[in-house]
Amino acid sequence: ATTAAALRAAGSTTVRARGPDVAGMAREIARDLPPRARVLYPSGKAVARALDSLLPGIRVDRLVVYDAVPAHALSPSLVDALYARTVHSVLLFSARTAATFAALVSEVELAGSCRYIKALCLSDPVAARAASLPWRSIAVAARPTEEALLALLPDG
In Å, how far are 74, 101, 116, 122, 142 from 78, measured between CA atoms? Predict the structure, then answer.
């Protein structure tokens, strides 16, 4: 959604935004575009699935616009908040994020603190990866969008 907004602000007139569901995006592109069409695909450095492999006959120009670099440690203030049980929800946007959080919280021996925290997950695959921790509960967004994920927050 952020990338789509930036493209629109830059003057692009035909922009389609679709959360992390590359298969759904490929279905829409195949349905809406003629064979031999050309598509610009701004993406992160690491992708779960290559869009071009799902679109035979359509030229996909992938442009890497960011790289998600995992944290190597929890911040001291987050560790303090976990000890104090003042964290009520954790937003997990990807399976990679869930795995990184699980590793880091376990590294400081605070995995048990998740019993007091609700995991809010962008999709079922994210929830599956998050399930390695003993959360108070796990909720999955109705759609794989930032808006749907944020709607899971209290008063969201």
Answer: 6, 12, 14, 22, 28
Distance (Å, rounded) from C-alpha 105 to C-alpha 63? 33
Per-residue pLDDT of the chain (156 residues; tens, 9 = 90+): 567 777 788 887 777 766 557 888 888 888 888 988 999 888 889 887 888 899 999 999 999 988 889 999 999 999 999 999 999 999 999 999 999 999 999 999 999 999 999 999 999 999 999 999 999 999 999 998 889 999 999 875
The residues pairing with 62 across neighbouring beta strands, listed in sequence order, are 41
- Rounded CA separation 113/106 (Å): 10
Neighbours of 35 (CB within 10 A): 9
Tokens of residue 30, six digits: 């195949």
